[in-house]
Amino acid sequence: MSHEKNIESRRRFLKAAAGTAAVAAVIGTMPRLARAADLPHLAESDATAKALGYVEDANKSTDPKHTAGNNCANCQFYSGAPTGYGPCQLFPGKAVNAKGWCVSHATKKA
Ligand code: SF4
């Protein structure tokens, strides 16, 4: 094998390796996304949810600490999509309603 051919085959190998790494990086994020979507929804009747005054619909909260417009979607502990359900750091293993609210709400920093 000539020197140029050697360099060419090494280039091809490096390109293929870089492509594999990129695919692996994308696949690596998939189980995490799938898990977030599969999380069971937090029930208002859950003991911790009750203790923190969690409601599925922030507009229905009767808690005096609730401020209109505050909900899980704009809380710094929420890491889901702006609609539907997503994970909350305070309720590991459960998904909260983006429209929900609890007394631990802390407005997300822009
Ligand atoms: S901490 Fe924030 S995201 Fe979690 S339930 Fe309370 S308001 Fe929703």
Helix-strand blueprint:
Blueprint: H1 3-38, H2 47-51, E1 85-87, E2 95-97
Antiparallel strand pairs: 1-2
The chain binds iron/sulfur cluster.
The site of iron/sulfur cluster has 13 residues, from loops.
Question: Please, could you describe this protein's structure?
Answer:
The chain is mainly α. It has two domains: 1-38; 40-110, High-Potential Iron-Sulfur Protein, Chain A, CATH 4.10.490.10. The chain is 37% helix and 5% strand. It contains two helices and two strands; from the N terminus they run ααββ. It has a two-stranded antiparallel ribbon. Iron/sulfur cluster binds next to loops.
Query: According to CATH, what is the class of the largest domain?
Result: Few Secondary Structures
Low-confidence stretches: none
| Intertermini distance | 58 Å
Describe the sheet with the most strands.
2 strands, antiparallel
Q: Could you give the order of strands across the largest sheet?
A: 1-2
Overall morphology: elongated
* Mean of all residue-level pLDDT scores: 83
The helix-and-strand class reads mainly alpha
CATH superfamily annotation of the largest domain: High potential iron-sulphur protein
